Amino acid sequence: MADPRALIGWVRRATLLAVVGGVLYAVSRFELLEMPEDRCSPLLAIAPGTTLVVDLRAKVVEVGDVVFHEGDGGELWVGRVEALRAGGLWIVTDAPSCPVADSRTLGEVAPERLRGRVVFGGSW
User: What per-residue confidence (pLDDT) applies to 1?
Assistant: First the structure.
């Protein structure tokens, strides 16, 4: 029978390897973004200064998801997916005190312009 101490050593190494792999995966896929505190937020659900966890490789988005998308000039916009259409995503904002460009002015957003989907937001 194998020595239990040797088995524990292998389990510790395997656990460490799994943790390091998980951290590398998370760092390559997700990014922390902070909404500027000195500006308004185009979405009522996201207060200025909120830290967002953004999935940079989101392949599927659904109605209601908060997403970042690239504008024609390379600027980054945030909005909520209101509808999935054949030509792209219909992305809107809902804060009347913070008017920014959305699908009402830009039209449908092509899926390849999607830069990330917000997974979680919080202030800490």
Answer: 63
**Rounded CA separation 115/89 (Å):** 13
pLDDT per residue as tens digits for the range 86-111: 889 999 999 988 888 889 988 999 99
Given its phi and psi angles, is residue 88 left (phi above 0), alpha (psi -120 to 50 degrees) or beta?
Answer: left
Residue 48's nearest CA partner among 78, 76, 70 is 78
Q: CA-CA distance, 75 to 9, in Å (whole number)? A: 51
- Of the candidates 51, 49, 31, the one whose C-alpha atom is nearest the C-alpha of residue 39 is 49
- Please state, as a whole number, how many other Cβ atoms lie within 10 Å of the Cβ of residue 42: 22
Q: Taking a C-beta distance cutoff of 8 angstroms, is the pair 59, 66 a contact?
A: no
The structure's pTM equals 0.81
Which residues are within 8 A (CB) of 107 and not within 5 positions of it... i.e. 6 or more apart? none
